[in-house]
Specification:
about 280 residues; alpha/beta; Rossmann fold; 9 helices; 7 strands; SDR_oxidoreductase; Short-chain dehydrogenase/reductase; NAD(P)-bd_dom_sf
Length: about 280
């Protein structure tokens, strides 16, 4: 294969936020981009270029996944990188979270990511190369209160991706994780907050209000769309055996705390950061 030919990336969930920024980053780097979303809106990407295709893809619909991959291969000849970015958020008291809501989280965040991986692997295996990047969350490193269901849906993808990375290495395929922090400027937080309605019962209301206030006041910088896009580009292009790419000062702070501290110290510091009732040690 000629090394000067543009490579092709397929990205899920590109209508806004991280996904849109990721698509724009790859376009700026000269890649062919398959920007997918459930309801395609060409207005999301006003630039005119033959290197961009905006396609429908619903990660909960296997037929939709297959059609997008087939069209991408037909258009650009091959897909070199898959970025599983589509996802939904939720803050809730788990006790009050119905099974239907939990299953909706897993259908998109977990099973949707698994389905797109399963669909793209045969094409990458035949060409003897490829990179799969699953975008998860900093909650897989440091889970805060009131995101138990969401953290579970993303943590499942972490275990899946690490196992998959060893499974696919003999075929020349790399699987990696990008772990973004909290990005208050994206629609992700707004949409997750809308789903929270009715899921914080009165028994949890005081705790939740104090918890969110404590998190908002914590003295750390948060994550930006540009940082996530840069991390995804690095994961797509760097050689070596790195599995996790961290995005955002908050993610890096949590990783340092988790991986460089004892279990007791980690739990104590997490409590101080997120739990309004946590006893502060003298």
């Amino acid at each position: 294969m000629e090394t000067n030919m543009p490579r092709t990336v397929l990205i899920t969930g590109t209508s806004s936020g991280y996904g849109k920024a990721i698509a724009e980053m790859f376009l700026a780097q000269g890649w062919n981009v398959l920007a997918t979303m459930r309801r395609p809106d060409p207005g999301v990407f006003p630039m005119k270029t033959d290197r961009l295709r905006v396609l429908p893809l619903d990660v909960t619909d296997p037929g939709s996944i297959g059609s997008a991959i087939a069209e991408g291969v037909q258009t650009f000849g091959a897909i070199d990188v898959l970025v599983n970015n589509a996802g939904i958020g939720l803050a809730s008291a788990f006790e009050a979270t119905p099974d239907a809501v939990v299953r909706q989280l897993f259908e998109t965040n977990t099973f949707g990511a698994l389905a797109t991986c399963r669909a793209i692997i045969p094409q990458m295996r035949r060409q003897g190369s490829g990179v799969i990047i699953n975008v998860t969350s900093s909650v897989t490193i440091g889970p805060m209160p009131l995101v138990a269901a969401y953290a579970a849906s993303k943590s499942a993808v972490e275990g899946f991706t690490e196992s998959l990375s060893y499974e696919l290495r003999p075929f020349g395929i790399t699987a990696r994780l990008v772990e973004p922090g909290y990005a208050p400027t994206t629609n992700f937080t707004t949409n997750g907050g809308a789903r929270m309605k009715g899921l914080i019962p009165v028994e949890y209301a005081g705790f939740a209000a104090a918890c969110f206030a404590k998190m908002a006041a914590y003295p750390t910088a948060y994550c930006s769309e540009a940082e996530v896009a840069q991390a995804v580009l690095a994961a797509a292009t760097e050689e070596g055996r790195v599995l996790r790419y961290l995005a955002g000062a908050d993610t890096k702070m949590l990783a340092e705390l988790r991986w460089s501290s004892s279990e007791a110290t980690y739990v104590s510091k997490m409590g101080e950061m997120f739990d309004p009732l946590w006893p502060v040690e003298a």
